[in-house]
Amino acid sequence: MKNIYLDHAATTPLSEKAFEAMKPYFSDMFGNANSQHAYGREGAKGVSEARAKIANAIGAKNGEIYFTASGTEADNWAIKGAALEYREKGKHIITSVIEHPAVYTTCKQLEKYGYEVTYLPVDGEGFVSKDDLEAAIREDTILVSIMFANNEIGTIQPIKELCEVAHRHGVLFHTDAVQATGAIRYDVKDLGVDMLSMSAHKFYGPKGVGVLYLRNGLKMEKLITGGEQERAHRGGTTNTPGVVGMAVALEDALSTLEEDAKYVASLRDRFVQKVLAQIDDIYYNGAKDVSKRLPNNANFSFRYIEGESILFSLDLAGICASSGSACSSASLEPSRTLLSIGVPIGTAHGSIRFSFGKHNTVEEVDYTVDELVKTVRRLREMSPLYKK
Predict the structure, then answer these.
(1) String of DSSP letters for 331-387
(2) How confident is the prediction for the chain on average, in pLDDT?
(3) Residue 325: is its pLDDT beyond 50?
(4) Which of 211, 239, 255 is the C-terminal boundary of a domain?
(5) Which of 107, 163, 320, 327 is an active site residue?
(6) Does 327 participate in catalysis according to the annotation?
(7) Burial class (CB in 10 A: 0-12, 13-18, 19+), 132
(8) For position 329, what pLDDT does the model report?
């Protein structure tokens, strides 16, 4: 049986370079990076070097990089930290209807504590309008949080333009760049963002480590207390191996970004063209302009059948894909993102996300298309909704 992994938006395999860099910190250099002895100093040196590498990779200063346990934690810290720190100014937050649950659910939680949240709509390709953002900002608005690139449909937002709108009104801007980092080259100073979240395992780094970029001078309430780690901003023993592995993985990913993105996009485009040519009654979700879409993302909705049934069939054929966000895969509800871009509720249930990586091949793409065509045909023949 073939074993084809097309779920890189959920997680990526750990790169060999990152793995090798992490090994010493599990064994000989195991010391707590906050301990004041030789073992601790070894760990601290590894963390300091990693912080510098990540800062350099995104155009930040070393002191603007704060390590977290995940992209989800970084998102929570950005939103809750800003909400608490600036609550005297106001309690109004703006986000979009297609945010990752790490942002969307956090905003929903804050509503229970007296905060007001405006959820901006998106167009049929998943784009947020800067005019809609402008109209939504109020005197009591304290934060705008718009994701850099959508985890389900791959649409890349015009973050720099949206950030400029927020800053014209003196409002902080955060972006969830978990899917974008490692796939898109960016500079935080050029973007103008005040806060940015990322997660190592999306760019061939280890699981369980992320970063929140906090612009220098920005006051932020702590999310996790109980320790003086991360310059007294985030308590908890530093995950030294993870931090070191994250920095090496990001540096490695960016060193070949354009080459890898071109290759991955060619696989994606081949896949999309073949699927559209061989299967009817489907929606290709997300931005149609490839320059405004993540290079690895292809999201389809298949009419008359359930996405879970497609996934199970593909899995039996040795193909790993996803019905959407890995963080929502256990939910039976249709994708909020797909409903927001206008996919009918029945069709939204029949959606699959294919996300390609640099280790995939043309042969794997063609095999997947063949199996997908057979699967859709077989499932539709069994569906009472399908008119032959």
Answers:
(1) --SPPHHHHHTT--HHHHTTEEEEE--TT--HHHHHHHHHHHHHHHHHHHHH-TT--
(2) 94
(3) no
(4) 255
(5) 327
(6) yes
(7) middle
(8) 47
